[in-house]
């Protein structure tokens, strides 16, 4: 195996092992030795790729920060009404967080503030995007009269954060919780036409 | 000042300073020196009270764990219907988290898993309590027909967790976010009678 490819695989093994350990045990309670054991990588090989556990955590944060713009871009380009985009996008974000341990650990660490520097852009601004989509949904008559689109956007964003943090520690997972939030809130929020269109799809 | 009282005040100064630093900067990024500087306590005095930064964090977790049962007990003893108890209790929890930095930092650290040991009972089981209250609300006809009380309980709990994590980093604070979640969801969830009783109170 060419040396460059082997180095890439080693780095990936470290990243996945770290994500699994941080996700299961927590960042603080995970010693470097547990990451080495899980990845089957020597200390020397580890330090070839990362200067410290902290540097590894920052790599996870950067990795998730690179993933989200594509997910968001894909949804925004779909020929769907803005409310359907908001619903579908957050449901997919929750599904990805649940399925992909590297993404999940990185998203959690972005909130964790491992280091004060270099982390300001580590979280995508879901709330602003949702505010924009819900405002457009309101203008297009997709919400019931009197419903505050900004309140709905904030509730949906807090639901995603809450569903990620609670995760699989109890009851349904992140994706089922996000879908449940939409089911519970849309009933009193979306226009009857939008709801019946959704049911008939 | 008697020695015992002085020791208590020193301990309290350390706890408050640590809560403020952890809340502002994050647990990992806060060095012990920042806590000493903020509290005006010497290293020697610090180590008289706490063995390490980790021991101090665990004290914050234990302190919040002692607060919640009283808050919950007070609400459960009120002569209110179960839906009003659920709403009032979570709104008060959000308000306390927003107002009290020691409670807020401790509640955040309980999720943070500083250490793997001794933290299993560090979070009150809000979701089970909410499931019970919402089931009783459903049996008492306080929810609209067809509404799943367990889904509402899970959404409310995730909203509290999300509102705490987002906190004051952007837009409205934890308390306003929790109230907003109830406002948005109750409209499609609570019975028209319950809603009109609430408005007339």
TrEMBL record, chains A, B:
<dbReference type="GO" id="GO:0003700">
    <property type="term" value="F:DNA-binding transcription factor activity"/>
</dbReference>
<protein>
    <submittedName>
        <fullName>TetR family transcriptional regulator</fullName>
    </submittedName>
</protein>
<dbReference type="InterPro" id="IPR050109">
    <property type="entry name" value="HTH-type_TetR-like_transc_reg"/>
</dbReference>
<keyword id="KW-0805">Transcription regulation</keyword>
<dbReference type="InterPro" id="IPR047923">
    <property type="entry name" value="ArpA-like"/>
</dbReference>
<dbReference type="GO" id="GO:0000976">
    <property type="term" value="F:transcription cis-regulatory region binding"/>
</dbReference>
<keyword id="KW-0804">Transcription</keyword>
<dbReference type="InterPro" id="IPR009057">
    <property type="entry name" value="Homeodomain-like_sf"/>
</dbReference>
<dbReference type="InterPro" id="IPR036271">
    <property type="entry name" value="Tet_transcr_reg_TetR-rel_C_sf"/>
</dbReference>
<feature type="DNA-binding region" description="H-T-H motif">
    <location>
        <begin position="31"/>
        <end position="50"/>
    </location>
</feature>
<dbReference type="Pfam" id="PF00440">
    <property type="entry name" value="TetR_N"/>
</dbReference>
<dbReference type="InterPro" id="IPR001647">
    <property type="entry name" value="HTH_TetR"/>
</dbReference>
<keyword id="KW-0238">DNA-binding</keyword>
<feature type="domain" description="HTH tetR-type">
    <location>
        <begin position="8"/>
        <end position="68"/>
    </location>
</feature>
């Amino acid at each position: 195996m060419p040396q460059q490819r082997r180095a890439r695989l080693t780095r990936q093994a470290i990243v996945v092992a770290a994500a699994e350990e941080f996700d299961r045990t927590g960042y603080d309670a995970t010693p470097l030795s547990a990451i080495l054991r899980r990845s089957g990588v020597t200390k020397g090989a580890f330090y070839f790729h990362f200067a410290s556990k902290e540097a590894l955590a920052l790599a996870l944060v950067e990795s998730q920060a690179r993933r989200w713009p594509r997910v968001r871009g894909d949804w925004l380009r779909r020929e769907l009404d803005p409310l359907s985009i908001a619903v579908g996008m957050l449901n997919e974000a929750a599904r990805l967080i649940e399925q992909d341990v590297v993404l999940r650990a990185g998203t959690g660490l972005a909130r964790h503030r491992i280091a004060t520097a270099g982390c300001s852009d580590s979280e995508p601004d879901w709330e602003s995007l949702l505010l924009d989509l819900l405002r457009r949904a309101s203008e297009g008559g997709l919400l019931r009269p009197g419903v505050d689109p900004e309140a709905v956007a904030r509730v949906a964003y807090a639901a995603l954060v809450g569903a990620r943090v609670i995760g699989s520690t109890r009851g349904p997972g992140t994706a089922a919780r996000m879908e449940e939030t939409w089911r519970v809130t849309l009933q009193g929020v979306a226009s009857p036409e939008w709801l019946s269109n959704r049911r008939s799809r």
